Amino acid sequence: MERTPPSMQALFDQLGLPSDADSIRRFIAEHGPLPNTVRLHEAPFWNEVQAKFLRDAFLDDADWIETVDTLNAQLHEQPSSGLQRRRA
Predict the structure, then answer these.
(1) Residue 6 near residue 65 (C-beta atoms within 8 A)
(2) Which of 39, 45, 57, 88 could form an S-S bond across to 68 if both were Cys, CB 3.0 to 4.6 Å?
(3) Could you give the CA distance from residue 24 to residue 9 in angstroms, rounded to a whole number?
(4) What is this structure's pTM?
(5) Nearest of 62, 40, 56, 83 to residue 27 by alpha carbon
(6) Could you tell me how far CA 34 lies from the centroid of its own chain?
(7) Rounded distance, CA 75 to CA 31, Å?
(8) What is the rounded distance in angstroms from the CA atom of residue 42 to the CA atom of residue 54?
(9) Over its length of 88 residues, how does the chain's per-residue pLDDT go in tens digits?
(10) What 3 state SS string does 14-58 have?
(11) How far is CA 19 from the centre of its chain?
């Protein structure tokens, strides 16, 4: 049986963070982009419990992995709008 990964809202709830759509967008905008050399769980804005949860999700290939991977990608994404303007 295939399981649906937890939602981003559920992940933010698990991390003890505001989990409405606006809060999630704001969190990603305020904390990203992370340098490619910084692993998600090593980012300075997590507390010890949050960092452990994120690290364990990767190490254990937990049910959370797809959602954590999505958050990881979003926090490492470079804004593209600035690049487009510079080229024009």
Answers:
(1) no
(2) 57
(3) 8
(4) 0.83
(5) 40
(6) 10
(7) 7
(8) 9
(9) 567 889 999 999 999 999 999 999 999 999 999 999 999 999 999 999 999 999 999 888 779 999 999 999 999 987 655 444 333 3
(10) HCCCCCCHHHHHHHHHHHCCCCCCCCHHHCCCCCHHHHHHHHHHH
(11) 12
